[in-house]
Amino acid sequence: MSAFDGFFSDVVGGAKDLARTSLDGFVDQAEGDSKAFILTNKTELEKWGKQLANREITRDQFEFLVMGLKDLTEMHALTEAGVAEASVQRFRDKLINLVINAAFKNFIPI
Q: Cα–Cα distance between 16 and 22 in angstroms, integer?
């Protein structure tokens, strides 16, 4: 399994766990929105992940880059399911933190 595959799996699995605890069970929608986020930003996330692994960028720089994607992150499935905007925003914030933590786990060599 590639580092990106592990990263993808960790983010999607973590998003499902977040949905179970913070979105009253909108797991399928959270999973769909999380996958869409990763796939939409795959090129950047892979590039930044490689740069992080090669120590071309720091953890702080990586975090800054990913945080820049937060405002562009659309949660279509959750919004269409009628989840309150405040709940969607909290989930989006947690998803970005999950992405950052999963990247550190999967892209930085031990």
A: 10
Q: In 3-state terms, what secondary structure has residue 68?
A: coil
End-to-end CA distance of the chain: 16
Q: Token digits for 32?
A: 């769909």
Sole residue written with tokens 């892209």? 107
Give SS3 for 37.
helix
What tens-digit pLDDT sequence spans the chain (110 residues)?
789 999 999 999 999 999 998 888 899 999 999 999 999 999 999 999 999 999 999 999 999 999 999 887 888 999 889 999 899 999 999 999 999 999 999 998 76
